[in-house]
Design brief:
By secondary structure, the protein is α/β, with parallel strands linked by helices. The protein is about 25% helix and about 20% strand. The protein has a 10-stranded mixed β-sheet with strand order 50-48-46-43-51-42-52-56-60-61, with helices on both faces. The protein has a 6-stranded parallel β-sheet with strand order 25-22-26-27-28-30, covered by helices on one side. A 5-stranded parallel β-sheet has the order 32-31-33-34-36. Belongs to the adenylosuccinate synthetase family.
Length: about 1300
Amino acid sequence: MMAVQKWKCSWPLTAAIASAVALFSIVYLLMFPVDPSFDYLRIREATQSGCLPPNATARKHVWENLQPRVDLHHRFPADLHGAVVYRKAPWKAEIGRWLSGCDSVAKDANISEIIGGRHCKDDCSGQGVCNYELGECRCFHGFTGEGCSERVQLQCNLPTSPEQPYGRWVVSICPAHCDTTRAMCFCGEGTKYPNRPVAEACGFQINHPVEPGAPILTDWTKDDLANIFTTNSSKAGWCNVDPVEAYAFRMKFKEECDCKYDGLSGRFCEVPVQCVCINQCSGHGHCRGGFCQCRSGWYGVDCSIPSVLSPVSGWPRWLRPAQLDIPNNENLTTPLFDLNALTKKKRPLVYVYDLPPEFNSLLLEGRHFKLECVNRIYDDGNATIWTEQLYGSQMAIYESLLASAHRTLNGEEADFFFVPVLDSCIITRADDAPHLSLQEHRGIRSSFTLDLYRKAYDHIVEHHPFWNRSSGRDHIWSFAWDEGACYAPKEIWNSMMLVHWGNTNSKHNHSTTAYWADNWDTITSDRRGTHPCFDPHKDLVLPAWKRPDAGSLSMKLWARPLEMRKTLFYFNGNLGPAYENGRPEATYSLGIRQKLAEEFGSSPNKDGKLGKQHMEDVIVTSQRTENYHGDLANSLFCGVLPGDGWSGRMEDSILQGCIPVVIQDGIFLPYENVLNYESFAVRLQEDEIPNLIKVLKAFNETEIGFKLRNVKKLWQRFMYRDSLLLEASRQKTKLGLVADWANELSKLTEDDVFTTFLQVLHYKLHNDPWREQLGHNPSSWVIPKKEEDQRSEEEGRVAVLISTEELDMKFDKFMRKPPVSSFAMDVVSSSFALDSNPLASPAWNSFRRRHQCLPLSSAAPRRRAVLCSALKSSPSLSVADSASSESVARIGSLSQVAGVLGCQWGDEGKGKLVDILAQHFDVVARCQGGANAGHTIYNSEGKKFALHLVPSGILNEDTLCVIGNGVVVHLPGLFKEIDGLEANGVSCKGRILVSDRAHLLFDFHQEVDGLREAELAKSFIGTTRRGIGPCYSSKVIRNGIRVSDLRHMDTFPQKLDLLLSDAASRFQGFNYGPEMLREEVEKYKRFAERLEPYIADTVYVMNEFISQKKKVLVEGGQATMLDIDFGTYPFVTSSSPSAGGICSGLGIAPRVLGDLIGVVKAYTTRVGSGPFPTEILGQGGDLLRFAGQEFGTTTGRPRRCGWLDIVALKYCCQINGFSSLNLTKLDVLSDLAEIQLGVSYKLPDGTAVKSFPADLRLLEQLKVEYEVLPGWQTDISSARSYSDLPKAAQRYVERIEELVGVPIHYIGIGPGRDALIYK
């Protein structure tokens, strides 16, 4: 079979492309299959040694011309436990190796998303939701038909008889009013509260026990209408009971009546609350009992899919930014049904089927008990209450997929297909109403559920074309119930199964449940086939749902150290029939819990006996505890044993930081087929239970510490944080509420369940052997290059066919010009603009000449193409090529709008980090300060650039540089920098924007600055004398001149005269006359003409970029300790170089700010006057100054040097809310035998100073207490990973983290771009 592969030309056009054909934006590459191997964990050597997809061997010449291979075996060796660590988790070597080298470096793919516009019959009669892609209705409960106009009678009661007037018992049984749209029971008309539920026992007579302790029984043959309908306040009523009267104890009510149905709260169902729906209808609909009733123009199970009728301002994030491709009117011969939204996405891409509601929404809407199959409900104030529903993970993963950036509406581009059948609902709801009867299945719920999955399979095969392209191998099904996919129909077994029960049937080759209704042994092979419950080569065990416990999170139980874990082994749970309230079945837990209790039981069984080997530090008990999580956190090892199928003990253990001891043969635990369990867990054979304690005591302290550290690193992978934070965001948006659990979760940053799932999918996408057989590979692909893999290319040009619209977008990526015969629609402003022919533009002509492009004719009515020959560029080392996967992952995880700010008194090395990060951002912006901010950066050839006004992102040719309104601009200095950059081959034209609101700094401002310092004499501030303060003074007293004034040279002389006259009146030494004014005006006329192409309304531009989801990096000047408000006033700058200055200096909203990185030297320096508590005077300071070359970039003045001041650093972190730190110049300390940290301040009388004081006199008097750490006294400048650093250097870094409470993610060990360690 041949597969069609879609390729896009990379940009800029580089010498790495040996042949590629891209015509009309789409290239078809024929790929031929090779012999397959069906074990994806044992991919042949050729694939595992690099990032090539599995079928690359047959097309080796194609792939090698496109991407050089990386030897992953040597680059990412396995550790002694056979693991390769990726993003802190120990993976199986082959998987961890591939993820480390290939996962986080994938480029965006150009995806055309389908926006539907097909209408439904009668708009579904208001009784359903229209799927605008298919033109089909999803009808609410009780309605059916093409337009949802037909009523379905869903009875509450089974057939009746004289002996059973309401039929035999079923959950929906109803003696009152039956709502036949949902088979639910209510009080009904004629009562005071007709919509009050009459659920189950509420409507029937109760037989109270005669003997104490005997059970209360309900007589399902006798209704209790006389009581529940009574208006007599002395009788126990329900349907006419006034809540106010009942709460005041003036009316009796029937205790067996309550509010089981969703959407109602209060003891008497008097409080309407929001129901639970998938993603709460995404803000585009109303949740009606579990079914989303979408507003017009929206559809999908969670109302997240827009149609052509939807306002694009509300489009979900996973569809933005987008460009809509709309044909010219003359080409339209039929009504416009669908539009294509052109987006950029990273693979893997997942298509989520919008199945008929019987597989999901109706199961939620028809629940008879609000806690069934959902992981949350809502209280009287609509605040979230998380449930203990173990099966809630199915809802969590579903919600995350629907809201994920990896979701696609284009099945042709999808890598995987998710089939959303909610068996967590159906298997709990089976037989709860007549329309869900188990009669045909002889009461076996697993048989009933198998049929539902089979119906889903039949539906997608009949209505969608995607199944047959891989026989379902790229489809994903979720099975939440106790025995996972054991009861999957044989037709879908090729697919990937997400389960909690990884039974391979290698030992337990039958149904393991002790509950007869779930036993699948009796399901015939013609329906089920003979497949096992789990295939580790294709399936994945996901963690069970665990309710977020704010208390446990805040106490950091997962991080409790070894010395606090006093219990050797711990297990608390049902131990079977030998114990009080134990499960009576001998087959419960496969008998494993019973064997464990028999040996080590620490609480008496029914016979009063303890386990044969019971001991003090081993707890095996069935007695419930109020401190379960705390008991786990106090233990070294915790038992992970099955229950009735799987149990949540693995999750309990990991989330409390306890080393799991797995005792269940042949059964895989969460991620066990992808993670290296030996690194953080213990597996014990069931037959070895008597030797359990001997095995555990054989581990030495080093091995235990190793496992505990790994548990601590990966525990978040067992939490559904993504889904939880989606709910937190909804709560904050709707109610302004940030609950304790949300606050704690917002502090977590490591990969969770959903991220881990996506990482596994990405690995499978490129390594599943069946894709090799069928030729399935993603249409976008990138791999990391090793430095030695970069090879010189032969001279000449490479001919490339590429569409003009693609070249035009690449030529001017920020203007987002649409194709010639199409409209471009901005998804935020919803404005339309018809583009002119880009081939006629002067800019295009310049670009065409550079790349030698010739137009080609095209038969396609909507596309034009050109033939280009890309000029070869000399190879240069880029960060993307040379950085490790950790660097790419770290940088890639930064928020859309991020900032880099200084944490001390400036000169921390911010420019280098900005230069590196800029290669991953679209925009780099300066927000405050002026030419007093000197940033030194180096290009790939090691050439030094000293920048003062131009943002440090200028060396990255794809980055736009913005000088914001908060900056004061000295034009002679700006043009000098631009000329210097251009002279060194750095193009600035079209890449720098200067705000029209920015104030101009004139030469006289610099002169006045010096005069001011001279006036202060011995009290001088020690400014850079670059005129910054006087310019800001002009701005504040409102006689300053802005960039926009250069466009009005008729009034410019009067404004400048006023400004100069004011300076002359203020300073006697400033000589001003008519000749100076004339010269300045003439000079600025020339400046105005040259600056005009750079001037822009940057407030508008920045906000447009942000709305288009472009990545923006803010480069701070100076540092927080020089802040006009928070610095050591008056020895400060004149602007706000802390976080607050970003918004005012760029005109962007605080809510868009994300990650802020604080840059701090490994020691402290300061230029000019002012307090410096940790300053080293004399020879020690001189040595540090020369070792670090501490001389100002802007002034050349020697910097004062001292030890790192932790008090000041914590103060800066508090003000700015840094998400991480960049520790620079760690290599400067390499020659020191001891290094000191200033950890606290004290007054001369010994009184502790708890914060950084504003009082300068106090600052001068206080004493610094130091902590002394050993130095490493070895050169670290060649280190490229954190593990390469000496232990003493690591300890220094980690001690700073501990003292400050902010992680250090970047460590500078030299001036070059590559001299940066990512931690």
